[in-house]
Amino acid sequence: MTLRINDPVPDFAAETDQGPIRFHEWIGSGWAILFSHPKDFTPVCTTEFGVVAQLAEEWRKRNTKVIGVSVDGAEAHRQWKGDIESFCGAPAHFPIIADEGLAVSKAFDMLPAEAYLPDGRTAADTATVRSVFIIGPDKKLKLSMTYPMSVGRNFAEVLRALDALQLTYNVPLATPANWAVGQDVIVALALNDQQAREQYGEIDIKLPYLRTTRAPH
C-alpha cells in the first residue's frame, strides 16, 4: 500500500547497530528523518551518510532525530560506520536499522511485496531502497524523496525542506519556490486579507491569491 503525505508512518520493532528500537517510541515528541540505502559499503551512500554525520548539530537544533535503514545486518552497519567516519571526519552517532527481512522497506513502499534478497545480491537488487522520509511529531509522513542509484542526495535540500515544514506546521502559511530561511512566506488562502493582517501584520498582495508576509520567528 502506498504511503502518502499525512499518512501515519508504520510503527515497527527493529534491530539497529545500536540495539533494538520501537520506531514510534524512538521518534518521541519531535521530528524524525528516515533515510535509506540499498547496501552497506557502497560509494555514493558512504558520502551521503558522511554528510548526515557532519550535520549532527543541525539536526539537534531542529529537534530532529535521524535514522538510516539498510537491508544489511547490524554487524555490517557497525563495520561500515568505521569507513563513514574515516571518510567524513565526524562521528556517525545515528542508528542504522538492520532490515534483513525487508519488513521496513516494504512497509514504507520502497520495495514490491514480492521482493526478496537473492544469494550474492548487489545493490541493484534493492536499488529502490534509496529514499528520504521526513516525519512530523504527530508520527505522520510530511515529505518523501526517492533518488536513483547514480545521484547522490542533497542534504542541504533536506534541511531546507525540514525548515519549511517546521515553519508551516499547523499554521496557515506556505513557502514559495526556492524559499530559504529568512525569506518571506505565503499566506494561506484559508485566511482573508483582514484575517491575514490580524495574524501576521503587513502583507504584500502580489495577486488576489498570492499574498506574502514576513516569516514569523
Automatic annotation (TrEMBL):
Keywords: Antioxidant, Oxidoreductase, Peroxidase, Redox-active center. Its EC number is 1.11.1.26. SUPFAM superfamilies: Thioredoxin-like. It catalyses: a hydroperoxide + NADH + H(+) = an alcohol + NAD(+) + H2O. The active site is at residue 45. It comes from Aquipseudomonas alcaligenes (Pseudomonas alcaligenes). This is Alkyl hydroperoxide reductase C. PANTHER family: ALKYL HYDROPEROXIDE REDUCTASE C (PTHR10681:SF121), THIOREDOXIN PEROXIDASE (PTHR10681). Residues 3-167 form the Thioredoxin domain.
